[in-house]
User: Fold these one by one.
Assistant:
Number 1:
Amino acid sequence: MHGYDKYAFEPFAVTVDLAVFTLRAGALHVLLVERAQEPYAGRWALPGGFLLPTESAETAARRELAEETGLTDVSGLHLEQLRTYSEPDRDPRMRVVSVAFAALLPDPPEPRAGTDAAEARWTPYDTAGPLAFDHDRILADARTRIGAKLEYTCLATAFCPPEFTLGELQQVYETVWGTVLDRPNFRRKVLATPGFVEAVPGAARLTGGRGKPAALYRAGTATALHPPLLRPTPEGRPA
Amino acid sequence: MHGYDKYAFEPFAVTVDLAVFTLRAGALHVLLVERAQEPYAGRWALPGGFLLPTESAETAARRELAEETGLTDVSGLHLEQLRTYSEPDRDPRMRVVSVAFAALLPDPPEPRAGTDAAEARWTPYDTAGPLAFDHDRILADARTRIGAKLEYTCLATAFCPPEFTLGELQQVYETVWGTVLDRPNFRRKVLATPGFVEAVPGAARLTGGRGKPAALYRAGTATALHPPLLRPTPEGRPA
DNA sequence: TCAAAAGTGTTACGATTACACCCATGA
DNA sequence: TCATGGGTGTAATCGTAACACTTTTGA
């Protein structure tokens, strides 16, 4: 950090790109926008935009999240910085450095097309590509990160509504990981972790229409899982 | 990512900041440079600099790493992106968005002062602050990340020379974590993880001057640890 | 012969796994 | 009464923690 001459540095555009995930119909979905202009006109891309003069990347990301989803209150949503993509040729016209974020939504509201985006749509993760720019890679990185963080954090509750059943929480893991978990063991594991979930006294809800009503839980105050909840089959990880 | 008018975006300076760690005399050290110019003239700061027009942040970080350490070959060194710091007021003069990296060095070479830095010096982590800009926070974030990654990756070998003993590898963990580990259990754990280390046949080395010569090992090909090597006392983590 | 560091063995405990089994509800 | 999903119990197994003990070197 030296040589601070205002004219010595290259000017860059700085943007944020968002990988906004939710669970719909038992499948991981991601929010995509259709590009209206060149380049990549008509192609799908991750929502995002430029930093305003007084915004940090985090502030800009939360603003974009509100704009693209149409939600009035995004303050409680999980939003985390992923990493920054800065390859010189990632935008064909100019230097654009993009700070990527991942966001998690509990309930899938219909997206509102932004004023400058042709359309916004929830898309199943598996059918999302190919996207504009390097967004395929950003999206893949985001999914990898989310899957990994389920193992050692309480992140899964960010996919759930304020009150949820343990079955729904388990479905979050099973959907994101693409595996099946043993219900009794999952239940014990979650309840044995202090602060992961807390019971809603006396509350119960029918889930599948049939079956025994399930007890309801709220997200607890803990953020980390000790010991972690490991995936049955380590797949994305060299060992 | 829309509204691509070259004059519509705010111009930003983009820099990289490096938290370069090594182990010296049983203590974690970090490479710092003394600022020659205002602001923060005379204060210590993390090494770093601007991205060149055709550089990615990763390329710029590796270039800066070579420049600041004076090493001719930094290709094998561990270098990873941490996160990006973009608070509007983090530099008093202008918008500077900085992509932070953490780097790990096995052997502590004497740093070479860069052409534009007054001085570069290895400093014990515990006596490193207060630094210029938001570098205290970047440094703390870097240390937290490195400590956490020792648990579930093979990162510790990045602190070691090409051939090392298990005692030296254990000291990496003990120094970074600030804990004491049980030697027999550590040994078993490391050797039971395929690809963590591989034995150098027939080689042995005296370590402390006294004592039995220790077998030598090289870093293996694995990058992740399964199951992880957890800290004895979870301190930095809410549970 | 002693201190220091490497290396081996063993036991107790805790967590995870893989099940079997019971409960409550709607069709 | 049956299918469905929620919930409890239990024994085998794996991994870790804690500790005693042996080996090999330099002083």
Note: The longest strand of chain B covers residues 13-24.
Number 2:
Amino acid sequence: MTNSNLTTKAEEILKAAKFNCTKAQVLLLKELLISDKPLSREELIQHMGQKCPDTVTVYRILERFCERGLVHKVYLQSRAWKYELGHNCTTKQCHPHFTCSDCGETFCLTGSSLPLIKDLKKGFVIHRQQVNIDGLCPACS
Amino acid sequence: MTNSNLTTKAEEILKAAKFNCTKAQVLLLKELLISDKPLSREELIQHMGQKCPDTVTVYRILERFCERGLVHKVYLQSRAWKYELGHNCTTKQCHPHFTCSDCGETFCLTGSSLPLIKDLKKGFVIHRQQVNIDGLCPACS
DNA sequence: GCCAAAACTGCAACTATATTGCAATTCACA
DNA sequence: TGTGAATTGCAATATAGTTGCAGTTTTGGC
């Protein structure tokens, strides 16, 4: 996809979700669109280069995106939160993530999925199930 | 279990895992033994009261316990890491955790389990699979 | 295009969480 | 009971995320 197509796509997504198409939001969404794995605030900022908005702004955009389900947080072994688009997930289940305990790299396992948990005690309502696998990646095993 | 039985149990576990039975390690392990859910450093310190070791010591003990598999870290929605004994888990899979998005409480779902993920691409080696569910607990739903 | 309201951004200060270095203490075991 | 190794506490530091507020940009109605 060309960069201008990507920009158009980001703008469409923002409009559809009733967000303003500000420079910062478009830029950040583009980074998420081209990434094949969840990114931390730190990584996003590095990818965005000179034009990058303020750290606080990055956090605030991510928070807004999360609130409306455009993006979600992934809770991994790393200390920092990571963020990814929700498009590879169903309402109730996020695709599994694999994190290499050697190199620290995270992989999205978009091809695999697990059933939703059953037999929960009465009263528990599931919003989202996340699966988080720890191990060695092909490069480190 | 009486307090002295608990102490004995903690000491046995420490010895079996080749740890010294220091006051701090016994105290901390006792807290983990009586807890039915993963605890953060903060929560551990609160539970230990006056006799509580230094924050840094708590982190260091937890780290040592994790290294030898006595304890493991759970990666949840909360910003702080949580720790629990490994005894309710199999080698490859930790029991699922449920975190209420309303009250923030975490529940161990020791009765339920999911199959291990299959069909991973060649070269991936699984060490541990964690399942993390987000939703509403009986009190909040 | 121009204007007002709403949404968004940047800066500075701050809070929470975890880590490091090093000297002092405690522990296991001969 | 003495000794080396393991453990601990304190102070300083690093890292991650948040808050308040003033200023800027964006949108939507004219």
Note: Residues 3-87 of chain A form a domain with the Arc Repressor Mutant, subunit A fold (CATH 1.10.10.10).
